[in-house]
Write a structure and sequence with these properties.
Rossmann fold, 5-stranded parallel sheet, globular, Helicase, Ruva Protein, domain 3, alpha/beta
Amino acid sequence: MTPPILLVVDDHANTRAYLRTLLEHEGYEIREAATGETALELLRSNEGKNVRGVLLDLKLPNISGIDLIQPIKEKRPSLPIIIMTAHATVPTAVSAIQKGAFHYLEKPLSEEALLGTLKAALSEDRGFALSEPSNIENRWAPMGPYMARLKDRVLKAAHHSFPVLITGESGTGKELIARTIHTLSSHSGGPFLAVNTGAIPRELVNSELFGYEKGSFTGAMERKAGWFESAGRGTLFLDEIGTMEISTQIAILRVIENRSFSRVGGTAEVPFSARIICATNDDLPSLIREGRFREDLYYRLNVHAIRLPPLRERREDVLPLAGHFLAQSLGRDESEIGFEPEARSVLERYFWPGNIRELKNVMISLAIEKGSDLPKDRPVQAGASWLPDFLRQGHDAGSGTESEGVPPRTLREGEKEQIRKVLRETGGNKALSSRILGISRKALYSKLREYGLKDE
C-alpha cells in the first residue's frame, strides 16, 4: 500500500524535521514547505495531487496560516487541513474551522493528539467528498431555496468532526438535521445516540452521561456505561442543552477539551471518540448574560452553527412540504398531489406554531381520514374542507397582516395555543404531549406554569 503523503508547512526547520521523523516512523510520507507561497506552488504541481493532508503552522512569513486555508480549499476542497500554533485563542480557532480547517492543535504538539487527528482526517478524506452524497435530496425533498442553503450547511458540517450547534424552535427538525449530519459523516459507522439532557433528573445526570463503577453508590451492583461511552466512534446528540445544570456544563466542557472522562466512582480516564452535536430552542446568549449557561462551553459548541428558522419565516416552503408529507402518507407520487386555492390560502396563512412537525402531523391526519376514499387513478386535489377546524379558524385569526386589518398572533400566543391543542388531543397526558411537542416533561411543566395552563 502506498503511504499517505502529508504536506508540513512551517517556517521552523526544527519543527519540520521533528514532524518528518515522527510521521515517517508512523508510515507517512512527508513533503515540506517553509512558506505559504511554497506550499501553494507544491499543491498546484503534479506532485501536489497526491497530498492527502496538510499540517499548517498559523504564523508564517508573508501570509498567515489562516489566510492560506482559502486558496488551498479552492484548489483541493476535500483536502483536510490541520492548523498548528503556539498562539491559540478561541476566536482564531473558530475562524480556522469556519474557513475550512479540519482541526486545530496547540504547540507543543501532543503526539497522541496529532496522530489521532491525522487518522480521523484521512479517514474522513477517504469516506466523504462534497460531491458524493446525492441521497440528501431524497431526505429533504422538495428542494426550495432555503433547503438548498441548509443542504450546503449540513454538508460542510459533515465534512469535519468539530461540535455542531443546531438552534431553532420546537418542531423545526433539529434532530433530523443532526441525524443527516451523522449519516453523511465519517462517524456514520458508529451509533447515533440522542439524549434529551433536560429530561434527565438532576441527581442522575452524571451517572447517565458518564456511567458508573460497581459499588459507587447504593444500588450500583455492576459497572454501567453512560451515553458518552456508548456513543463509541459515532455521534452523541445532546438535545435541549439550555436546560443543563452548570455542573453538567462544566463536566461536558472537560470532555470536549480532554477527549476523555471518568465514570462516577472511578478514577480511570475513559477515552471519548464520538462527535458531539447539540441542539436547543433557547437563546443561549441570553442565558449566558443571566449566568445560566457558560460562555466558554458556548464557544466550544458554536464552532459550526446551523439555525433552523420557524415555518412562518419561510412560508414559501409550506405548500411544497405539505404536498411532500401528504404524498408520503398516501403512498403517492408528489406530482399527483395538489391543493385547491382556498386550501392553499389556509395553509400559507396559518401561523404554524408547531412548525414542520405540526404540518407533517396535519398531513398524516388528513391522509388517514381521506385516504380510503381517494381514487387511485386520478390526481388528488385537497380542499379547504379537508383541513381541521383549528387550521381554518386560524386562517383569519392567526396569520393575517396589519394591512388586511387582522393583527398577527405573537409567538407566545401561537405556542400557547399549540400546547393547549396537543393537551386536548392527548386527553391531558403530559408525557405523550411532551413527546409530540418535542420538549421534555420538565420544559412542558414550565410552559404550563408560564401560560397558566396548569389545570388543562
